[in-house]
Amino acid sequence: MNLRQVILLLACAGLGAGTALAADAIREDFKPSTLNQPGQAFPQVNSQGYARFRVMAPDAKSVAVSLGLGGSGGTPLAKGEDGAWTGTTAGPLDEGFHYYHLNMDGGTFNDPGTQDFYGSIRWESGIEIPAHDQDFYALKDVPHGTVHQVLFASKSTGSIKRALVYTPPGYEKGRNRYPVLYLQHGWGEDETAWARQGHANLIMDNLIAEGKTRPFIIVMTYGMTNDVKIGGLASFDVNHFQRVLVDELVPYIDASFRTQADQKHRAMAGLSMGGMETRWITLKKFDVFSHIGLLSGGTISPEDVMGAPGFKEKVKLVFVSYGSRELTGNNPMRVGNPREITESLQKVGIRSVFYVSPDTAHEFLSWRRSLRELAPLLFRD
Amino acid sequence: MNLRQVILLLACAGLGAGTALAADAIREDFKPSTLNQPGQAFPQVNSQGYARFRVMAPDAKSVAVSLGLGGSGGTPLAKGEDGAWTGTTAGPLDEGFHYYHLNMDGGTFNDPGTQDFYGSIRWESGIEIPAHDQDFYALKDVPHGTVHQVLFASKSTGSIKRALVYTPPGYEKGRNRYPVLYLQHGWGEDETAWARQGHANLIMDNLIAEGKTRPFIIVMTYGMTNDVKIGGLASFDVNHFQRVLVDELVPYIDASFRTQADQKHRAMAGLSMGGMETRWITLKKFDVFSHIGLLSGGTISPEDVMGAPGFKEKVKLVFVSYGSRELTGNNPMRVGNPREITESLQKVGIRSVFYVSPDTAHEFLSWRRSLRELAPLLFRD
C-alpha cells in the first residue's frame, strides 16, 4: 500500500453506511437512538435499521443529513407544518455506529438531538443501529474495569498529552501485574474513540466476565493523525508519533501502572490509519511489541517480514481484520488479497489470524468485533 | 430558601455573563478560544474579554448567539458577502467559562467551531474568557493525578451508574490511603462537569504541587438533578440521590479505592443545585460526612443546625461561597445575608468559612476558585 492508496482510503472512509436497497415496507416501530441526548425523541431507529431524523428549524431553507445509503450522498429532510424538518433514510443502514452531521443552509452543524463523537477532525453527531450481536459490548451487571485519564509530559513535542488507560476489574485493590495493549484510533479521531464509539472497556469487561480473555491493560492516546489535513498525508511522518508512543508513553505507563514491562507482554493494534501506524511502528519496533493487530488498516506481508530482520523471531501474532464490505468493490485499502497475505505469514513461521466482520464497512462495529476476536489471542505465549 | 426560590434561581442561572458596559474601543487582538475544536478559528476572544463569533450558513435567515451581556438576550450575528454570519458581544464578558448556543432559523444548534459541554440538560457550546488568575487551573508540567471512570451497580435505581474519580499523583504506585471529597455538579449538568468545565483535577494537581493542600480523592457522579425538568422541581426528592450516594456509591468507592473510610475523612460539596443536595443530605447524614461545601448553593444556618441534633459535634467545617455578582441585585438564591449566616455558625461552635469570587456570577470560574479555597481547608483535623 502506498500513500496515494492511503489517501484514497481515507477519502472513502465513512461512505460505507448501508448498501442494501429498500424493499420491504418501512415498519413504524421507530424508537429514539440510544445515543440521543437525555430526553430527546429524535433521531430514531426502527427494527429494520432505518433511521429517521427530525430537526426543528422553521426558517431554514434546506436541511439534509449526511448519512444515507452508500453513495446516496445523504438523506434530505422536508419541512412540515410545525416547522420541523423530518426525513427517513432510503433503506436500512448497516448495524452499528455511524457518524453524521447536518448540511443546513449551506453550513455544517450537528443534530441537537444526539451526542457528539470526535471523528473527521470535528465533533460529529452519532447514531447507533442496534446490532443483532450487541450483547458483547453492552453495559451489563458484571465486574467493571476502570478507564483512567492520565496526563504525561512529551518532551519531543514540548506538550502535555493525554492518554486513556483501561485497567481490568480488580486492578485497584490487587497486586497483579498485567500485559498492555496500545490501541490506536483512526484518522480524524482521537484518544476518546475506542472507549466511546468502540466500547473497548465494556468489550473487555464482558470477555473477562465470561473467562474468554486474559485480563490486560489497554492504553489509548492521540496518534497525531490529524496534524496533517486530508490530502496532505504525503507529509505524514510516523516518527513523530513513534517517539511519543515508544520513548515517552510506554515508559510513563510502565512507571505508573502495574504492567508486565517487557516485549512479550506488550501489544499494539489500531484501526484504519491507526492500523497503518501500528504496521509502520511494529515493523521497526518489534523489540518493543510482540503482538500486532491491524484493523481495516492494511496487512503485513512475508516480504515486509523479510525486510525486517529479527521480526519473525520476536513477534508472536499478526492479526488482520476487515469489515466484509471493505473486501468487495473498489477499495484502495485492499492491496492484493488480505486473507492470503495474512495467512501466508504462517509459511514464514509467524502466527497469523485473519478475521472478517460480517455485513459491516469501514466503521466501528467492524472494529468492536475485531477487538472481541483479537483480545483472546493476546499474551497466550 | 424554599422551592420557589430554587426554581427562580435556576431560571436565573446563566444570565450572569458580564455586566460591564462597553466603553473603550474594541481591541482587534482577537484569538481563537482555547476550547475551540482543532483547527477552528472561531469563536475568538480579545484581550478585553469581548467574544466574536463566525458561523458559515449562507442560506440562513437569522443567526444569533445566546451569550451576551447580562440581560441583553444574546448577540445577533450579521451575514457577510461570503455567507458567514459574524458578530461581537456588546461588551466584555466575565472571565471564565460560559455556556452558549446558536439560535438559528427558529431552532437551537451548537456552534460548529467549539466543543460541547453538558449543561442545561443538553450539550451546549462553550467558550473560555482567559482569567487573570487562570494559572491555578492551567495544565502545567507538574505531577498529574488520574481521572478514573468507574461503573457501579445501583440497586435502588436498577441501573449501572457512572462516576468519575480523581486520584492524586502517585496513587497508582503508592500504598497510602486518602480522604474523599464527594463533589456534585449543578442542575442541567452531569458527572463530567467538574473535570471538564471545572478543571477540578488540574486545580488539585497544582495545589498539591505547591504543597497547599493535603492530597485527597474526589468522586463526581450524576446527581439526578435533571430527572425533573425546570419548573417541576417541586417534585424533586433528594432521597433518591441520597440512597445512590450514601448507600451505594460510598461503599463502592471504599471497596474499590484506598480510602480512609470513615466520617472524619469524608467530605461533600456541590455547586448550585449540587450545593442544595449537599445541604439536604449532610444535615441528615452528618455521620457520613464531616466537611461540607456549598458553592452558590445556599447556606446552613444556626437554625438548621439546631434542627439536626449531633450535627455540630460531628461536622468539622461548613464552607460557603458565591460569585460576587450573585451577592448583588435580585438574586433569589440569596436568602438573608449569606456571609452573616455562615459566620454566625462560629457562635454555635462550628468552624465556617465564607468566600466570594471576585467579579464572577453563577458560573464555573466562581466554582473553580471555590474549590481552590475549599481544598486546603479539608481534612485538617
Can you offer a commentary on this structure?
Two copies of one chain form a homodimer. In chain A, the strands form four sheets. An eight-stranded mixed β-sheet of chain A has the order 13-14-16-15-17-18-19-20. Chain A has a five-stranded antiparallel β-sheet with strand order 1-2-3-7-6, with no helix packed on it. A four-stranded antiparallel β-sheet of chain A has the order 5-4-9-10, with no helix packed on it. Chain A has two domains: 21-130, Immunoglobulins (Immunoglobulin-like, Sandwich); 136-377, Rossmann fold, CATH 3.40.50.1820. With 381 residues, chain A is of the alpha+beta class. In chain A, a hairpin with a 2-residue loop joins strand 9 (102-104) and strand 10 (107-109). The two termini of chain A are 30 Å apart. Mean pLDDT of chain A is 91; it is low at 1-22. Chain A has helices spanning 3-12, 193-196, 200-209, 238-256, 273-284, 302-306, 311-314, 338-343, 364-374; strands at residues 31-32, 44-45, 51-56, 63-65, 75-76, 78-79, 84-88, 96-100, 102-104, 107-109, 116-119, 122-129, 146-154, 159-167, 180-184, 217-221, 266-271, 291-295, 317-323, 352-357. Helices cover 21% and strands 25% of the residues of chain A. The first copy, chain A, has nine helices and 20 strands. At the A-B interface, strand 10 and strand 13 of A face strand 10 and strand 13 of B. Strand 13 (146-154) of chain A pairs antiparallel with strand 13 of chain B, so a sheet runs across the interface.
Which key features would you list for this structure?
2 domains, Immunoglobulin-like, Rossmann fold, 8-stranded mixed β-sheet, 5-stranded antiparallel β-sheet, 381 residues, alpha+beta, homodimer
